[in-house]
Write a structure and sequence with these properties.
This protein has helices at residues 3-17, 34-37, 53-65, 104-113, 140-149, 164-181, 191-194, 204-210, 224-236, 238-241, 265-277, 293-299, 302-308, 415-423; strands at 29-32, 75-77, 117-123, 154-158, 186-189, 213-215, 250-252, 282-284, 317-321, 326-332, 338-344, 351-355, 366-371, 377-381, 386-390, 395-400. With 434 residues, it is an alpha/beta fold. It folds into 2 domains: 29-309, TIM Barrel (Alpha-Beta Barrel); 317-403, Immunoglobulin-like, CATH 2.60.40.1180. The strands form 3 sheets. It has an 8-stranded parallel sheet. The protein starts with a helix and ends in an 11-residue tail after the last helix. The structure holds alpha-D-galactopyranose. Alpha-D-galactopyranose (GLA) binds next to loops. Alpha-D-galactopyranose binds at residues 34, 79-80, 128-130, 158, 190, 219. Belongs to the glycosyl hydrolase 27 family. It is found in: Lysosome. InterPro entries: Aldolase_TIM (IPR013785), GH (IPR017853), Glyco_hydro_27 (IPR002241), Glyco_hydro_27/36_CS (IPR000111), Glyco_hydro_b (IPR013780), Melibiase/NAGA_C (IPR035373). Keywords: Disulfide bond, Glycoprotein, Glycosidase, Hydrolase, Lipid metabolism, Lysosome, Signal. Residues 313-394 form the Alpha galactosidase A C-terminal domain.
Length: 434
């Protein structure tokens, strides 16, 4: 074969393997039913909370009307227990007719009319984890086509009731089938979570080619214990997980439970901050109809969101683990900026942690600091010691702008001039913060 033709042919064959749907170049944001509403199908007695089209319509209205959508929270995702127990006469999945009388296509239209997107759930196996019809290998194509026909925008493919061999076939096959529909559908794979989340059983290079995001680990629950357990696993395994993430392919530590019952305000800020550092998908699972203003303020924090959504898409890492229970996390951001999180595992009282930017691997220079949760700003040289007061189970989060350009004068003037030479500089403050 001619060389060019050969290259073209090989590019084509890679093209059919790689997930090239163009979506989720930054971590997806939105709302997901599972953690808060589970498999409540008792619409007769609990109409406001049961898994029905009304719940998703209510949440869509809140996203569209309460300032969430403009911040990027656009996905409204159905999880388990939405379907009828039977496929239709043509073998297609169908929504439970009592709870979703309008059907999924109409629900997707409702989302699209409001600038939102609809996500749906299925399971690679004989049944979903909740016991609803699963998608066995022979059903993959028809189910992908059904979701595309319904104009669904995202699909979470769970892995209950299948074995490793079936998953190895099914997850890539579904990727191909979704691509073949021609509709860009964000593809969330639970595959790694069913295989322990680590190599050699999990192949993160392959996952990045076939999925947009993947659950690596167990389910989040509405408790600080659960959040901490997830945080620990993700940062203990950061060297494996960080290279897997990038635009269009994200590790998923599971939903935000901020706004529910289990976390204090400090713990809520900790989850938001660490999910931003991890470049994690931000799917809230809470009741947006009754959320407290405190939780809402945390979830709507523009600086935390813009750190999470940084276009470089580099997942951050833990850089310091002190015996005192203080840990420091860092994420590189566009334009030489970065984010820092000081986190306390302590349970006694606010801890005064002293350090300097030099100790945190920052190079020579003067940096403008924006405190994400207090809106305070200050300028710090790499050598200047500072103290942050970190609440028990809480965080202090900073956006650190690129160092001011070195001013030549500093080399010729007296030391008392140095500070002002730096401060004269107009630092690159991201527009969103102004
Ligand atoms: C699994 C998943 C959860 C949720 C439930 C639904 O446990 O990990 O996120 O989808 O199934 O049954």
């Amino acid at each position: 074969m001619h060389l060019a033709a050969l290259l073209f042919a090989s590019a084509l064959s890679v093209g059919t393997l790689a997930l090239d749907n163009g979506v989720m170049r930054t971590p997806p944001m939105g709302w997901l039913a599972w953690e808060r509403f589970r498999c409540d199908i008792n619409c007769e007695n609990d109409p406001k909370n049961c898994i029905s089209e009304n719940l998703f319509i209510d949440m869509a209205d809140r996203l569209a009307e309460d300032g969430w959508r403009e911040l990027g929270y656009v996905y409204v995702n159905i999880d388990d227990c939405w379907s009828s127990m039977e496929r239709d006469a043509k073998g297609r999945l169908q929504a439970d007719p009592k709870r979703f009388p309008g059907g999924i296509h109409k629900l997707a239209r409702y989302m699209h009319d409001r600038g939102l997107k609809l996500g749906i759930y299925g399971d690679m196996g004989t049944h979903t984890c909740g016991g609803y019809p699963g998608t066995t290998l022979d059903k993959i194509q028809i189910d992908a086509q059904t979701f595309a026909d319904w104009e669904v925008d995202m699909f979470k493919f769970d892995g209950c009731y299948s074995n490793a061999t079936e998953q190895e076939k099914g997850y890539p096959l579904m990727s191909k089938a979704l691509n073949a529909t021609g509709r860009p559908i964000g593809y969330s794979c639970s595959w790694p979570a069913y295989q322990g989340g680590l190599p050699p059983k999990v192949n993160y290079t392959l996952l990045g080619q076939i999925c947009n995001l993947w659950r690596n680990y167990g389910d989040i629950q509405d408790s600080w214990d659960s959040v901490l357990n997830i945080v620990d696993w993700f940062f203990e395994n950061q060297d494996v997980l960080i290279p897997a993430a990038g635009p269009g392919r994200w590790n998923d530590p599971d939903m935000l439970v901020v706004g529910d019952f289990g976390l204090s305000m400090d713990q809520s800020r900790s989850q938001m901050a660490l999910w931003a550092i991890m470049a994690a998908p931000l799917f809230m699972s809470n009741d947006l109809r009754t959320i407290s203003s405190g939780a809402r303020t945390i979830l709507q924090n523009k600086m935390a969101i813009s750190i999470n959504q940084d276009p470089m898409g580099i997942q951050g890492r833990r850089i310091v683990k002190e015996k005192t229970g203080i840990e420091v996390f860092w994420r590189p951001l566009l334009k030489n900026a970065s984010a820092l999180v000081f986190f306390s595992r302590r349970n006694d009282m606010p801890y005064r942690y002293q350090t300097n930017l030099g100790k945190l691997n920052y190079t020579f220079g003067s940096y403008k600091i924006f405190d994400v949760f207090t809106d305070k700003t200050m300028t710090l040289k790499d050598t200047t010691d500072f103290v942050v007061s970190v609440n028990p189970t809480g965080v202090v989060m900073w956006y650190v702008s690129a160092p001011a350009k070195r001013n030549l004068r500093q080399f010729y003037r007296g030391s008392e001039f140095q500070q002002s030479a730096y401060e004269d500089q107009e630092n690159a403050i991201p527009r969103v913060f102004l």
